């Protein structure tokens, strides 16, 4: 007989370079809930025609993101925003999706199921399919102690799994732990990354990246307009669609730069294919608009003044943020 097993799940850290996360007190991580969430994450029955799972658009080898500009859903449908990477979710305290329309990770987990451009399925049909699958049904019992399958239980389990995906074993993490050294180019890039822009002293001016990509998770829990377009070019109003505030127009969630080298294309609309294009944007392409962040706008008088070698150094540093341990961790892989 299948038994309920609420044994706690301990987050798996490697280098302890991340702060203690704020885990949801009403949904403690357990071994069996994490396992169930993983099974749901890779289960194509969550889509209307059995062709798409969460993992279809969030591939582990790409830090649980999608290398397509826009992900392909059922029947070839495509969305209009780039799929966000899924890891270190326990350190995101400012809601989810590019525009923050999901308050909690459990809310985000159900959104793609009913989205007609993604899985195009109803929660009722998903529950029916899962209820007819003895393997899934038994795992719900282990995770929750009941044969009843609900969308609420699904969301809690998927929240558990996504919060279990930890990235803290990049070369930079090992550098912080004193286990390795950066190359000369990577070190120059590190100094540029954390150095502040100074238009009056170009020789010591930095790339000013850490104002937005701060801390050891390289993000700041904010929504910002990073100068991609002028007002007349705005197509996607971003955060404003959630808050109804004109001051939030074209603002999007500031994402982590961890694993950035394996998560192309870049920006909410996937407009940049390479890190070189991203660096060029911040170096000389920031556009003035009504909601562009003042810190970015302040760099436009001279641009960042990065020469070709400095841009290479900066990108080489960004590549040290790739965590190959996470990308290949069997604990996060397809369980079927």
Secondary-structure map with pairings?
Elements: H1 31-41, H2 54-57, H3 105-114, H4 123-131, H5 134-144, H6 151-164, H7 171-176, H8 184-194, E1 223-224, H9 240-243, E2 252-253, H10 275-285, H11 294-297, H12 308-319, H13 324-327
Helix pairs in contact: 1-5, 1-6, 3-6, 8-12, 10-12
What would your notes on this structure say?
The chain has 336 residues and is an all-alpha fold. The protein has 2 domains: 31-166, Cytochrome c-like domain (Cytochrome Bc1 Complex, Chain D, domain 2, Orthogonal Bundle), CATH 1.10.760; 171-320, Orthogonal Bundle (Cytochrome Bc1 Complex, Chain D, domain 2). It has helices spanning 31-41, 54-57, 105-114, 123-131, 134-144, 151-164, 171-176, 184-194, 240-243, 275-285, 294-297, 308-319, 324-327; strands at 223-224, 252-253. Strands 1-2 form a two-stranded antiparallel ribbon. Helix 1 packs across helix 6 (151-164), helix 8 (184-194) packs across helix 12 (308-319) and helix 10 crosses helix 12. It is globular, with a radius of gyration of 21 Å. The mean pLDDT is 96.
